[in-house]
User: Fold this.
Amino acid sequence: MLRPLLSSVLTKYAYLERRDRAFIKTLCEGVVERQMSLDYVIDQAASIKTSKMKGTIRQIIRMGAYQILYMDHVPDSAAVNEAVKLAAWKHMAALKGFVNGVLRGIIRLRDGGISYPDMETEYSCPYPVAAILREDLGDQKAELVIKSLVEHPGLCLRTNAAKITVLELAALLKKEGVEVTDMAGWESGDRTIQSTGDLPPGVLFAKNGGLNPAGSKSFNEGLYIIQDLSSQYAVWDLWKEYVNINHSKMDYINALDMCAAPGGKSLYLAELMGDKGRIDACDISEEKTEKIRENIARMGVSNIDTAIRDAAVYDGSLDERYDIIIADLPCSGLGVMGRKVDIKYRVSPEGIDSLCKLQREMADNAVRYLKPGGILLYSVCTLTDREGMRQREYLENKGLHKILERKFIQGVDPCDGFYYALMHKQ
Assistant:
């Protein structure tokens, strides 16, 4: 997976200037994100197809091509010269002329205007993924999603209401050099949220590239957490519906987050619950639960306990223990392809079938752990009907009653792609 690999490399080269590290990150992610379109253009300029090139040379040419096509601030001469030097450094000096010729050919193609055979190639969307999107969303929405794959969305923040107001946070971030807007700013644009009812409070959007959480004093002080709007909506709706159903008997609440890392949904629910209950935030490994604990400590929350637990393994001691369960389950991730740029290359119908089976095993346990009268939040950060609506139908066949369901679509809504359903156990 690209993200942990890139993170380890950037940690290794932490001594580099921030600008240089940002360049490495942009180039690495960009080459992966645009791989299909890059290979198409390279194939027009080279005498040898990319599939037949030596792996090292292929990657060197891809990096040079990405800079030429998509990094306007990099001079063409610098992109070509550095690629030629890199070929020599990798003990392939005999291929310097080939690298030089291919990249100069790409410059000529760019200047003449590049025509792509289809939008899948232009926006680097693998054909199996495009087929899934078209089947489940229809052509119009699928094409908006495909175009969004190479957009770079900003970050959505949730204000820590226990420490600061949203207006105070916006002013503080402005002093830190971060440009932010609230929901009203987004709704006045071309894209509007596909939802009804109250907006989650404390939402801010940070312009792409303007926010560096690691270097943000306000972030390190726990004044906000990065949490997509779709995820905030899911927890906000969960809490509103729970209060609506149980307003006359709001006793102490026991809640479970089955796959909690890095903890955003648990933290938001904890804030909404206050001293009315506690949350067991669980995940499958020490590494994942440590991420939850780090965020708990940073945000200053005291009503969450963490535990290592495999959501797919049934634990009879938890039967009918919980009033609220969050089941944000492993999925194909088609809703976050714009942020995790390598996901799209790993998706297959067979893989989705396996994930659906795992989701049902976890959902079965969630139904067992939920008290009568309790609410289950089932959610996935993907767009397929098999992992969304069909799983909600499965839960209905298990005896749960649907309260509401929502599906957000990136490229249509100002957030990641996301599906959730609220299910009531009567």
